[in-house]
Amino acid sequence: MGLYDKLKSAGKRVSNKYSGTRDYFYLTPASLSLLKPLLPLFKKYVNGRLLDAGAGRLSYRFLLEDLCESYTSIDIDVRGEVVDVVGDIQSLPVLGNIYDTVFCTQVLEHVPEPQKAMDETFRVLKKGGLAIFTVPHLAYLHNEPYDYFRYTKHGLKFMLEKSGFEVVEIVPAGGLFSFVGHIVSTIIVNFTAGIPLFGKLFFEANKLFVKVIVSLDGLFEKKKIYALNYIAVVRK
To answer: Cα–Cα distances in Å, from 112 out to 108, 128, 228?
Structure first.
């Protein structure tokens, strides 16, 4: 196994270990820089019956469950914990418009037909229901070969409106510091995670590094032309 493959394998183990906890969002600046603007949006918009579309490791479940009446997860694969429904968000196995909120984070870059996924989200939402999408603007290749797209805020808005959504707001998340810091944190955490005692020490040091990097993004990248991700809140 080559160095890159070892890094990816270690990354999966670390992500599975911390998923569903606050520490998961301190693995890299990319995670924390996305979480920080999401939290106030969750409090403002999440309600009723919620679908976590492309839920993966269910990393956000513990944050969303307290804000909604019911939580349902769907993913095309089962990783870490078991999702409620195994299915493709490009063709959701849901009859009718039954959800008040849909949350779909860092998924639309991994589906070959994201417009279909947006159309399906629109279909399963109640009238007046809200969806929260997050998508990458800057990102290295990952989960290959299932890595198809990157999004500008303008392209994202166009696609969402094409599906029939009213765009409530589009929020940039993270920047160039978090992009570079993600690579550094990935190397630090993944290569030290299995070392007794020192692994924990490096993890705590990385948490401080992550906080500093995210703060730097907030201080120096005001225009967000290098936004790491975009968060879109839309209404049916």
So the answer is: 8, 28, 21
CB distance 97 to 124 below 8 Å = yes
Domain holding 117, by residue range, is 3-235
Nearest to 149 by CA among 119, 181, 179, 115: 115
Q: Which of 13-17, 104-108, 113-117 has the lowest mean pLDDT?
A: 13-17
- Domains in the chain: how many in total? 1
CA end-to-end span of the chain, whole Å? Answer: 48
Q: What is the pLDDT of residue 198?
A: 79
For 184-206, the three-class secondary structure string (H helix, E strand, C coil) is HHHHHHHHHCCCCCHHHHHHHHH
Amino acid at 161: E
- For residue 125, what is the DSSP state? E
CATH of the domain at 225: 3.40.50.150
25-35 residues labelled b (16+ CB within 10 A) or e (exposed): bbbbbbbbbbb
